[in-house]
């Protein structure tokens, strides 16, 4: 059975119940180069407390104009029926399925589809690239090998050995910030996305043979949904696009789908002036007191000396950072609650703003209240067991935000924190960073096992409304980013903590309205001095090139004692301040118009108007004679060049192409007038 679109011809086999050919009709490339023989759909269910894989049986395929209908009458001899609908629309294949459970002996809990495998692009897999939505995005060249190993050095989001292949699977929304992937080379592109406006917990899957001798990639999604006897379920749409474009096209497909469900303009105007914050985790950590509440004015003034009026405070709670959560009350050894409030009043009365940290996810098992309260709030896995996580020496259970008990406690705690202590913003740690989980606790108030994400959406929407009743200028920050959460937040602290193929451009380009905050301190977890030194300049460069907010340990790792690091941080901060007028009033265009940039350098573009563009360039390693080549559709008249100290040079141009010298400068700003 064949299906045709504007850019492809594909063939479906009823024997294996999947595509056996997807051919790009623009380039002539056959995407499916290996015969993997796996079904497009797979279900999992629980029967007698055992998890069972359910394989399709009794398959029929019928063909209509631009549509295939696959009818499945059994799964592993269970009375489960399914109709899969596959349509072609322009350059896209749209897939969805109706599933009905008519079997009393099993509860369906997972739907794995659409599974497409055996893919690489062009003549070689080695130049293929994957865009993967881990946090703010990753870009990996040759994922057949990059994903084809046990990446246990990743502390989460790793690819792991699965049967005889390797699989990377993380859940949306949070650990995976979006529900799409893009796979491409210089000539071909493949988009695959889950377009489900119900936003369930969804595993984003990329898998590979991991073998040079037998290279292939596979892609799919896993939705967590309980389908009991007599229930029907529609999966929502999955979209596959066959193109000759790079990942930016995939970003636009996803944005077009999800944009109508998001709010991109919900924050006070004064936040548009933000370019850095003074990050203070230095009150109480690991049982040690570093500063007390009466030092808050001093810590604030250290930031203000550098022009930073936003003070972010963590480690203020009982027993300090990552301890005794969720008991968010001022630690008595640091001072009284009123002393804490007076410190924040000082910040506000002296032209500043403050954000307070609370954790939105975990419950310390050592808390006096864990036995009586924490266990009731806990996520339960499919075996009915609590889910544990360890941070430093402390062990926690994961709370379920889709259940009323934790959801309401978290809301009340956050509202009380803002009202009692007078902060301007609340930071919800882990909310968009740690992995969302299905919850099988039948005593909880949520309707379904995959409602975790919607629980957090409720928390954010309700909390923002409550905060703004007290203070119209209030805002919410989260750790890392999730597309559906961005409608309610101002800042997303995007970071990873391991050597991933980080590519924050992906989330930035897809959602330029959502503010990213990037860590630019020397990496405390990096043991190698030379690597830590280099990463500092690279991290600072990335944050500034992308126009992101600088997360700075002004009173910890970036003090005067840091020497060269301190001096450069001051210069870079001032440069970031100077480009704010450009990046806050423009459209982020990423690498559009960039024809070439020297190795180890980075640059990104911003469109201010039809005749004015800004490009921010970085050369963290100070490579001599570095250049940036630009090409526009119309002639350039002149260019303003600013170095890191904001010295200005003007260049007259009468061409649509220009080669600009970055030289050995770590940061440069080019304002293009045409």
The chain-level mean pLDDT equals: 96
- Would you tell me the structural class of the helices and strands? alpha+beta
Runs in which pLDDT lies below 50 for 5 or more consecutive residues are: none
Give me the number of helical elements: 10
Q: So what's the oligomer here?
A: single chain
Largest β sheet strand count, sense and barrel closure? 10 strands, antiparallel
What can you see in these coordinates?
The protein is an alpha+beta fold. The strands form 7 sheets. Strands 6, 7, 8, 9, 12, 13, 16, 17, 20 and 21 form a 10-stranded antiparallel beta sheet that branches. Strands 4, 5, 10, 11, 14, 15, 18 and 19 form an 8-stranded antiparallel beta sheet that branches. An 8-stranded parallel beta barrel has the order 22-25-26-30-31-32-33-34, surrounded by 6 helices. The longest helix is centred in the C-terminal third of the chain and has 20 residues, at 564-583. The protein is globular.
Primary descriptors:
single chain, 674 residues, ten-stranded antiparallel β-sheet
Summarize this entry quickly.
The protein has 674 residues and is an alpha+beta fold.
Task: Please describe the topology of this protein.
Blueprint: E1 2-4, E2 8-13, E3 18-24, E4 42-47, E5 50-54, E6 56-64, E7 67-75, E8 80-89, E9 92-101, E10 107-112, E11 116-119, E12 129-132, E13 138-141, H1 143-146, E14 159-162, E15 165-172, E16 180-184, E17 189-195, E18 202-208, E19 217-227, E20 232-234, E21 237-243, H2 247-258, E22 276-280, E23 284-285, E24 288-289, H3 296-305, E25 310-313, H4 337-349, E26 353-359, E27 362-364, H5 370-377, E28 388-391, E29 394-398, H6 404-421, E30 425-429, H7 452-470, E31 475-479, E32 491-494, H8 505-510, E33 515-519, H9 529-545, E34 549-552, H10 564-583, E35 587-590, E36 594-597, E37 602-609, E38 612-618, E39 626-642, E40 648-663, E41 667-673
Parallel strand pairs: 22-25, 22-34, 25-26, 26-30, 30-31, 31-32, 32-33, 33-34
Antiparallel strand pairs: 1-2, 2-3, 4-5, 4-10, 6-7, 7-8, 8-9, 9-20, 9-21, 10-19, 11-19, 12-13, 12-16, 14-15, 15-18, 16-17, 17-21, 18-19, 23-24, 27-29, 28-29, 35-37, 36-39, 37-38, 38-41, 39-40, 39-41
Helix pairs in contact: 6-7, 9-10
């Amino acid at each position: 059975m064949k299906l045709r679109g504007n850019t492809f011809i594909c063939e479906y086999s009823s024997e294996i119940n999947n595509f056996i050919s997807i051919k790009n009709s623009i380039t002539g490339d056959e995407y499916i180069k290996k015969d993997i023989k796996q079904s497009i759909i797979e279900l999992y269910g629980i029967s007698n407390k055992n998890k069972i894989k359910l394989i399709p049986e009794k398959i029929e395929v019928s063909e209509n104009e631009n549509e295939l209908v696959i009818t499945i009458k059994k799964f592993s001899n269970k009375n489960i029926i399914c109709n899969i609908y596959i349509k072609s629309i322009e350059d896209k294949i749209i897939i969805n399925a109706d599933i009905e459970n008519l079997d009393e002996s099993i509860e369906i809990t997972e739907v794995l589809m659409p599974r497409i495998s055996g893919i690489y692009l062009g003549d070689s897999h080695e130049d293929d690239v994957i865009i993967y939505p881990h946090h703010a995005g990753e870009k990996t060249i040759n994922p057949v090998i990059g994903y084809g190993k046990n990446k246990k050095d990743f502390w989460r989001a790793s690819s792991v050995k699965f049967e005889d292949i390797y699989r990377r699977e993380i859940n949306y929304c949070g650990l995976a910030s979006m529900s799409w992937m893009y796979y491409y080379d210089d000539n071909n592109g493949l988009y695959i996305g889950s377009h489900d406006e119900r936003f369930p917990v969804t595993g984003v899957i990329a898998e590979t043979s991991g073998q040079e001798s037998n290279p292939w990639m596979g892609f799919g999604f896993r939705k967590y949904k309980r389908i009991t006897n007599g229930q029907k379920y529609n999966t929502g749409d999955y979209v596959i696009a066959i193109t000759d474009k790079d990942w930016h096209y995939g970003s636009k497909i996803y944005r077009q789908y999800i944009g109508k469900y998001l709010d991109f303009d919900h924050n006070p105007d004064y936040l548009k002036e933000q370019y850095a914050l003074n990050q203070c985790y230095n009150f109480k950590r690991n049982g040690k007191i570093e500063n007390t509440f009466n030092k808050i004015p001093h810590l604030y003034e250290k930031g203000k000396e550098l022009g930073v009026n936003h003070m972010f405070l963590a480690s203020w709670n009982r027993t300090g950072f990552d301890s005794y959560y969720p008991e968010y009350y001022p630690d008595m050894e640091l001072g009284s609650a009123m002393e804490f409030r007076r410190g924040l009043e000082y910040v506000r009365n002296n032209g500043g703003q403050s954000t307070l940290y609370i954790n939105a996810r975990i419950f310390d098992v050592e808390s006096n209240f864990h036995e009586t309260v924490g266990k009731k709030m806990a996520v339960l896995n499919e075996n009915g067991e609590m889910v544990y996580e360890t941070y430093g020496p402390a062990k926690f259970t994961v709370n379920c935000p889709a259940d009323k008990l934790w959801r309401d406690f978290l809301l009340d705690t956050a509202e009380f924190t803002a009202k009692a202590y007078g902060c301007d913003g609340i930071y919800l740690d882990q909310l968009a960073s740690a992995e969302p989980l299905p919850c099988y606790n039948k005593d909880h108030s949520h309707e379904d096992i995959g409602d975790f994400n919607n629980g957090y959406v409720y928390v954010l929407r309700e909390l923002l409304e409550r905060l703004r009743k007290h203070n119209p200028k209030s805002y919410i920050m989260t750790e890392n980013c999730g597309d559906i959460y961005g409608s309610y937040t101002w800042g997303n602290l995007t970071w990873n903590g391991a050597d991933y193929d980080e590519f924050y451009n992906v989330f930035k380009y897809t959602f330029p309205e959502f503010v990213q905050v990037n860590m630019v301190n020397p990496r405390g977890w990096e043991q190698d001095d030379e690597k830590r030194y280099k990463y500092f300049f690279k991290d600072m460069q990335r944050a500034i090139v992308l126009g992101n907010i600088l997360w700075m340990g002004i009173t910890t790792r970036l003090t005067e004692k840091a020497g060269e690091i301190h001096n450069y941080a001051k210069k870079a901060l001032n440069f970031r301040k100077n480009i704010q007028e450009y990046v806050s009033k423009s459209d982020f265009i990423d690498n559009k118009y960039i024809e070439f940039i020297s190795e180890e350098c980075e640059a990104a573009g911003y469109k201010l108007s039809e005749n004015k563009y800004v490009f921010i360039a970085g050369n963290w390693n100070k490579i001599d004679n570095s250049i940036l080549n630009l090409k526009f559709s119309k002639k350039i008249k002149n260019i303003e060049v600013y170095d890191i100290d904001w010295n200005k040079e003007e260049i007259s141009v009468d061409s649509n192409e220009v080669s600009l010298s970055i030289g050995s400068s770590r940061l440069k700003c080019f304002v293009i007038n045409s």
